[in-house]
Every structure is written in C-alpha cells, then in structure tokens.
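Homework help board

Subject: predicted structure for assignment chain

Our instructor gave us this sequence and asked us to write out the predicted structure in token form, then describe one feature. I got the tokens but I'm not sure how to describe them. Can anyone check?
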Amino acid sequence: MSKNFKVGIVGIGAVGTEMVKVLRQRQFPCDEIRIMARSTREEEVAGEVFNVVETTPEAFDGLDFAFFAGTEGSKGASQQYGWQAVERGVIVIDNGDDFRMDPRVPLVVPEVNPEALRNHQGFIANPNCSTIIAMMAVGPLHRAAGLRRMVASTYQAVSGTGRNAIVELEAQLKDYVAGRPLSNAAYPHQILLNVLPQIGGLKAELPGFTSEEAKMLFETRKILGNDQIRVATTCVRVPVFYGHAEALNLEFDRPLSVADATSILSEAQGLRIVDDTANARYPMPLSVEGQDDCQVGRIRKDPSTENGLCLFVAGDNIRKGAALNAVQIAEALI
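My token output:
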C-alpha cells in the first residue's frame, strides 16, 4: 500500500465514530479523513478534532473512498449522494440498507464472499450487522456442506438503533436505581429489564415479519449466492449496550459432524471458538464488545432435523457489524 488515500465519512454517530477509530487502529493508508454531516462545524470524533463539512455533491471531490455510516434503518444519505459520489470517481461503501439488494451493488463480508467485489460499479454495500455476525460462522460451513435452511433468533444491542437508544438505556438504568419513573422515546416500550421482539417495521413481502428479519433472509441468500436457502428469523432487542448474539439452527445438504464443523470454524478468519459449556465459556456480548473477531460456541448436533447443527454466535455490532467490515472492504479493494 504505497499510496495514501483520501477518505470521506458521511455521518458521525456511533458507526461514523467507530469508523474513525478503525481507520486509525488499522493504520489505513490515508492522508485525509473528511467528515461530512448536515452542517459545517468543528467536532471531536474519537479523540481527534475535525472540521466537519456540509454534505454536498462537491464535498466528495478528490476522495478515493466514501463510507456512508448509517446505523440499522438509517436512510437517506446514500440515496441522495451515493451514486453522485460514484460519478465523481469515488468508491462508495454504504452501511445503510438502501442498496443492499440492488443488483448493481455487491453485498460483501470480506472473509466470506470477497469474490463479489470483482467488477463492482463503484458502489458496495455492507450487510446488516446481524447478518454479518451470522455469516462469519455460517459462510465457512456453507462452503463445506451447503446451507439448506437457517432458523435464527437474535439478541440485539441497543447501539444498533443509534446513539439515542444508548442514551435512553443509560437514563433508564440511572432512573431505576434512583427510584425515579422511567421514560422511553427510542422504543415503544421500556428496554431496561425487558426484551422487545420487534426490530423495524412490518415487511409487506414477508407477512408478519419485520424489516430486520427480512434482511436476514434476503441478505443471506445474496451473500451465499443461493436463492433457494430457506431462512426464518426472530429479531429481539435486548438491554445490552454493544454486541449482538444469535442462536442459529442450521440444516445442510450434506452431513457435517460437530468435530468437522469445529475444525472448519477454527480455521475461519475473523472468528474465534469459545465453546466449553461445562466451564461456562461461550460467546457473550460482553466478551465481544470492542473486539474485531466474532465468537462462536455451543456447537452441537440438531436432533430435530437431518444434517443439522446448532450454534451460538456473538459479535460487536458497531465494529465488525458495521465500521470494521466497511474498512475491510476498502482494504480488500486496495
């Protein structure tokens, strides 16, 4: 990497801030990080002071990469400016969901389907955070035995909603300890000491399922390159600040023993096996917070179906589930 690149980040919420951290920590070869937002101002981001510029088509001039840093469900910026940036010679890597299923746009987890980056048209999409975390374990197993069906139950941290949800959980915790009434705005119900089995609105294409649950179906099929894979997901918001966890029941075309699956997963990039239930060792949100690697454990046969396995995975939704994956896409392109 002899060249230094000019990088833009659109948005400075939880994901945008983490992108700055990841770029610095991985020593990404850039001589400029240009942060764009709704208004011009000076802002401290991840310990650095930046002169934030207003997001306009002209603000992308001279950039090599532009990261659009929306969190789950965040829309608008890449719709308005993404393809305009591409026309100005910028490679766009979008964390939002506006173009994930666009046939022009590769949907990429670099450890799982880097080949999708071939012949890109200047616009690449990050998958949803829960999909990325699942694919880190499912991808290697799919290559070995062919995924036929996946049933996923997710336990998703409030940071996936954005900074307002983090602040709300903190406030509810403080008010609970102080004996004060709890208020809620980020969610329709109190999240402290509660779980909410709804993330996103209802999806017309999948009656009864939410948008977050639909993403797992459509994105899994696109990433793994198989439209016949059957997926059913229940996505649940839990009172955790960072780190998504997921229970996965997988059915394959061919038999896959626990020993073989463990061996395959032990060699997978970006994945660490934590699997010793007898000694209370398994993936947890607390153990993946701030970590690049996802974790997988509770690996066992699924006795309810032929060629089935059960897994439990966890990953930092803001890091590998968003910022890190986007930066890794740029690294792969370089």
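Reply (TA_rk): Your tokens look well-formed. For the description, you could write something like this. The CA atoms of residues 137 and 259 lie 15 Å apart. That's the kind of observation they're looking for.
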